[in-house]
């Protein structure tokens, strides 16, 4: 039994002591040899991205719709200009190539909607390439139910109610019989 434990201890100690030496040798070898170029990674085919025409940069804003003109297919959007840290308003027009998300078209967009818009400055106008409307879902509170904020807090009525302080002895104990 003692021989077996001694042999096991010797094997473990040998492995523990020699591991750092082998690790250092590998690190030294890697420093001496130049690293091979990583193999090119193939990406799956995605939808083609239409690059803006030369001299045009795709811009992005996120803001609140102020006005909508459905016939002219344009709207005004109030947004925060991050460069100057001020609120600004911009006029955006839609063209037949504009993609809409969460709505069917410009006629479904209402003032006070929150929108995310990708657009190009084209011929002195801001033309939207993509418009996403972000609407917050509101849940109705049914009749006869109180919202958690309106419910008064009732102390001591939960599952862990404080014991009542009663100094009187119970009437039907064994000692009184």
Structure description:
The two termini are 70 Å apart. The chain has a domain at 59-134: OB fold (Dihydrolipoamide Acetyltransferase, E2P) (Beta Barrel). The longest helix is centred in the first third of the chain and has 31 residues, at 2-32. It has one helix at residues 2-32; strands at 59-69, 74-81, 86-101, 114-122, 125-134. It is 18% helix and 31% strand. A 5-stranded mixed β-barrel has the order 1-2-3-5-4.
The gist of it:
The protein has 177 residues and is α+β, with helices and mostly antiparallel strands.
Key phrases:
single chain, 177 residues, alpha+beta, OB fold (Dihydrolipoamide Acetyltransferase, E2P), 5-stranded mixed β-barrel, 1 helix, 5 strands, elongated
């Amino acid at each position: 039994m003692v021989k077996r434990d001694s042999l096991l201890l010797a094997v473990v100690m040998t492995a523990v002591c020699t591991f750092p030496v082998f690790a250092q040798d590998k690190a030294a070898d890697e420093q001496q040899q130049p690293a091979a170029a990583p193999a090119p990674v193939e990406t799956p085919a995605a939808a083609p991205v239409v690059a803006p025409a030369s001299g045009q940069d795709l811009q992005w804003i996120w803001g609140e719709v102020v006005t909508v003109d459905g016939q002219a297919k344009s709207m005004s959007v109030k947004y925060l200009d991050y460069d100057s840290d001020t609120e600004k308003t911009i006029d955006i027009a839609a063209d037949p190539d504009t993609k809409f998300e969460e709505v069917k078209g410009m006629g479904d967009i209402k003032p006070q909607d929150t929108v995310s818009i990708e657009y190009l400055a084209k011929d002195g106008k801001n033309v939207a390439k993509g418009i996403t409307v972000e609407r917050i879902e509101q849940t109705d509170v049914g009749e006869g139910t109180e919202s958690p904020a309106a419910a008064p807090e009732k102390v001591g009525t939960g599952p862990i109610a404080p014991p009542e302080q009663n100094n009187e002895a119970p009437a039907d104990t064994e000692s009184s019989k």
